């Protein structure tokens, strides 16, 4: 993405193309654990700025955007196009952007006579935060939205619950697209975990139904192999004590061993 969505050439001694990185708070949360300022500089990022901050025009530099496709963000990006802030625009969305919002950007680009300046538009499917090689979280700027408390509030409405479930499903879907694997899903019944499992299963099936546009087919072709080693996704409710049975079996022998 930081190389204009072109794989970087190894052993390349040439100077990187200097560019500006524009992100929102979500993008900032995703990039921060992965890349230091020095690493960004090595990739040609001279400036990294928040989308909604006051930014000066730099008309001879390309800009890489990494943002969520929210109404507020789209409006600000359209404003940037109208103000002719940068030489060219590489738009990368953390989650998939809807057709209507894409049309809003297109209309703004036509209105600003900047169609040729919009170089690329990508759905990156990166709506999760990687903390370690084998650990990621879904918490972001809206961490209160997907918290344990939010799901178990006595006054929660069906609409709010649907929104929470959709947020979790979108992040999990992004993770498996990035992984390039279709999981086997297991969940505890009658809980929020089951709701997430059903929604994720439906989203995966819908994506696989259209073989020509499937995100997973493309990844597998790029990798030149079809993997039969499918990962197991276990979804459990926080009310379930998962740690204890993983530490030892539910027997008196294990209990006596722990206590004595």
From TrEMBL:
Keyword Methyltransferase tagged: no
Domain of life: Eukaryota
Protein name: SCFD1 protein
PANTHER family named in the record: VESICLE PROTEIN SORTING-ASSOCIATED
Listed GO biological process terms: protein transport; vesicle-mediated transport
The family this protein is said to belong to: Belongs to the STXBP/unc-18/SEC1 family.
Alphabetical list of Pfam families matching this protein: Sec1 (PF00995)
Record bears the keyword Calcium: no
Sorted UniProt keywords: Protein transport, Transport
InterPro entries attached to this UniProt entry: Sec-1-like_dom1, Sec1-like, Sec1-like_dom2, Sec1-like_sf
